[in-house]
Amino acid sequence: LGLWFPHENFATQCQLPVDPPRDTIYFFEALAVCSAIHFIPNMTEIPSKMLIYTDNSNTVAMFNSLRAHPPYNPILLAAVDVLLQHEVDLRMEFVPGHENGVADALSQFQNERVLMLAPAASFFNFKPPQNALGA
């Protein structure tokens, strides 16, 4: 999983969790969005609005409609809890992966490529929110 916060040059990544739910085609994309939302409490200034780009249209639809298939409910609920607690409006938009090169490179641990695209990037590791994983 890779997350890119361009205004802070903040790049973060983690290995994929083991034993993800079965029959969940876009599980990791949704988990990445939830993880980005869970960074809100750690931001220097809590935003009133958050825009997240992803290259998965199912993830965009899930978060924009707040409707999910049952295996995705823990991810959606974990994200919405943070958004409500901090009064943040979320907007999701689709962007083709080739147009979001830094996030794509981060998710593949291609850190040299990240630095070519964003020389000031600072790298950090993270763990996805455990409540989003059903824990």
Tell me what the structure shows:
The chain has five helices and five strands; from the N terminus they run ββαβααβααβ. A hairpin with a 4-residue loop joins strand 1 and strand 2. Helix content is 35%, strand content 18%. The longest helix is centred in the middle third of the chain and has 13 residues, at 73-85. The protein has helices at residues 27-37, 57-65, 73-85, 101-107, 111-117; strands spanning 2-5, 10-13, 49-54, 89-94, 122-125. It is α/β, with parallel strands linked by helices and 135 residues long. The protein is globular. The mean pLDDT is 90. The protein has a three-stranded mixed β-sheet with strand order 1-2-5, sandwiched between helices. Strands 3-4 form a two-stranded parallel ribbon.
Question: Which keywords apply here?
Answer:
135 residues, alpha/beta, three-stranded mixed beta sheet, two-stranded parallel sheet, globular
Shape: globular
Low-confidence stretches: none
Strand content: 15-25%
Q: With helices defined by DSSP (H or I, 4 residues minimum), what is the helix count?
A: 5
Return the string of H and E elements.
EEHEHHEHHE
Helix fraction by DSSP (H/I, runs of at least 4): 25-40%
The oligomeric state is single chain
Integer average pLDDT: 90
Q: Can you count the beta strands? A: 5
Q: How far apart are the first and last residues' alpha carbons, in Å?
A: 19 Å
Main sheet makeup = 3 strands, mixed
Offer a quick outline of the entry:
The chain has 135 residues and is of the alpha/beta class. The protein has helices at 27-37, 57-65, 73-85, 101-107, 111-117; strands at 2-5, 10-13, 49-54, 89-94, 122-125.
